[in-house]
Amino acid sequence: MAHSDSEDVTGAPEIIASRQQTRFHLLEDARSSDVTIEQLTLSIRASKAGSKAGSSKAAKAGKAKAGGGAAAKTRDILVDATLRLKAGVHFGLLGRNGSGKSTLLRALAAKVIPGLSLATRIVLLQQTAAEDGSGTEAPTGPRGAKTVMQYILEGDEARNQILEELNTLTRIEPRGDNEELGQLRAYRRLLYTRIQRQRIEAQKNAALRSGARGSQARKELIAFEKRVEEARDRVDNTEERIDSKECQDELAEASRLTAELQTELDERPLGDLEARARKVLSALGFTDEMMQKRFDELSGGWQMRCMLANTLLQDADIMILDEPTNFLDLLGIIWLQKYLIDLRTESSKTIIVVSHDRDFIDHVCQEIIMIKDQNLEYFDGNLTTYEEDQQSKRVNLTRLKNAQEKQIAHVEKTIANNIRAGKKSGDENKLRQAVSRQKKLEDRMGMQTNAKGGRFKLSRDMAGYHTSKRAAIEIPPEESAVAMTLPLAPDLRFPGALVSLDHVWFSYKPEQASILQDVSLSIEMGSRVGIVGLNGSGKSTLVKLVTEVASPTKGTVTRHPRVKIGYYSQLAVEDLRTAGAADPSMTALSTLAAEAGKEMDESDMRGLLASFHLKGDTASAVPVAKLSGGQLVRLALACIIWKHPHLLVLDEVTTHLDFYTVQALGRALRGFNGALLLVSHDRFFVKSVIEGAAELMGSDEEDEGSDAEEQVKAEMKRNLYLMKKGKLTLLANGVRDFEESLESRVDKLLAA
């Protein structure tokens, strides 16, 4: 009843999946956008190569138990969960970093989950590293050497399969002068290819079943293997008479199949695909010149955009988008948002989205799938509605529990009084009354409604063995991540702006046009400054001037003589991954030690890493190369926070974080007493951190300070600027001004 994908030669962990199997279950071979998998258990198991390497390394470090033993264990992602997808519905898959979202998506795409039809077409865009250490990489080799447009045109898998089968039928190799024999051989070659694909389904069927049904399935598989061998032998059989009735029937079927495949191919004209590809690529920022560039000559961000375009153009029943907004500017995000919404009326394609961009999830997704506690929970509505529903449940259940606790205390007091009075006076009626009240107390206290909101009924809602008559009132905990802690910025001793840019111009070469034009900006202690704009507008260049990575061509940049700046680059995660790949012994602790080892002892460094949820062996035993994207972001933040900066410069810091961690980071930044310069495409994060929309951060007792502290926060200088063509403009109405300026452009792109 289990199935797994093959172990990667590089030692990537193996995905193991099993599910409930009924005697009436039949494996379907038809395409479908609907999926219902009962009692699904999904696990990842470290490969033998990975376990041996981990054991060897741990032994050398004197930590054999922590290293080798832990690496060899199987980790459960889901246990007896129900996976349910509905045709045409857009789902948002949510959960903390490390909960198994990317692993579940990869298992779906690889069809290692028993019960998924091989005929169902599933396409996956997976940009970030999965929890099992895997991830999507840009193609190399022949396809990587193609132009962007060729990459898209050759990426239509459905069309490619039709072409492959048509080429098999038309690739005739006549024997002597007998062309019909060549046609017959080509037809049999195609049948052999198809039956090989069917064998995979038969093998899965045999693996799924147990007992008598399993024995029968294995017998059927043996018989099927014989059919495969016979099909292979028929390809090379040259002794049959071509004029026999059987051969002539096969030739007639070959002609019919050729015509059918040609019709299917004609329905997918390459010109139409190219027109659609050009439209999607243009919306994602590609110029005509860039479309003719080789794929492998593009930067990582542009390669991911190309892969996104390829995914959107696939003829798929289920489309999976894992962090599709990474590397997109706000124009691209809003376009993708509207593109996916339009698909609801145009196709029955099921879409699953994982994203840290809360606004994107709210607009695109109709239902939420929450992965937590090794289970899948479903909610009909978007993320905001889900959180409002959860908060309402917590409030109502808290009130109910408090009321019942008061009622229980009153009844228990009455029972105790009756028992005491009955024993004192010998009144049996009072004692019987006390017993009756105790029984009612046990029978009637607890949940008054069932899981569906109806009236609780014992025989229906608590069938089977149980120790109480009603379920206890359990208040679901808040889903927010554990709060992060940012150290306070030290006193500057004398006032003044931290960084000031005065009429700054910048160009990389004298003969080139200026990237920044007459930019003036002042950042003071406590300031919240946000920069938004499209890719290539000059945002990162401005950040480099603020952080002294570059100097202005004209104008002046002045800094407070005591200012300390903490700079998080948008390339921070990639830089750590590169360093970790080059040095397998590199850990989070050793990385921080290289930065702060002379000024911090190990206990202080461990404490700082723990405040970013990199604790214990995660900090000191797990190689940096094995850390998830979210963990690498937190490590990069720890490496800039240790020196207690007055100014935090964060360039696209939310990439790779789940939305819980985004929320936790937002709360931490809200309480930071220093200044913040934020560059981000995440509308939710900008609204909450720069514009000060505290309600977006949720309620958290730890986030509530004194009245004086709240007054200081209210008086913070908050400015959001738009960077456009090298010029900086203040947005009076914040992010909404920028969104409105882009929506008309998006409408034109969709209508083109």
TrEMBL record:
Coiled-coil region list: 214-264
Domain of life assignment: Eukaryota
Keyword Ligase on entry: no
Gene3D superfamilies found in the cross-reference section: P-loop containing nucleotide triphosphate hydrolases
Keyword tags: ATP-binding, Coiled coil, Nucleotide-binding, Repeat
Any GO molecular function: ATP hydrolysis activity
InterPro entries with a match to the protein in the record: AAA+_ATPase (IPR003593), ABC_tran_Xtn (IPR032781), ABC_transporter-like_ATP-bd (IPR003439), ABC_transporter-like_CS (IPR017871), ABCF (IPR050611), P-loop_NTPase (IPR027417)
Domain ABC transporter: 56-398, 499-723
Name of this protein: ABC transporter
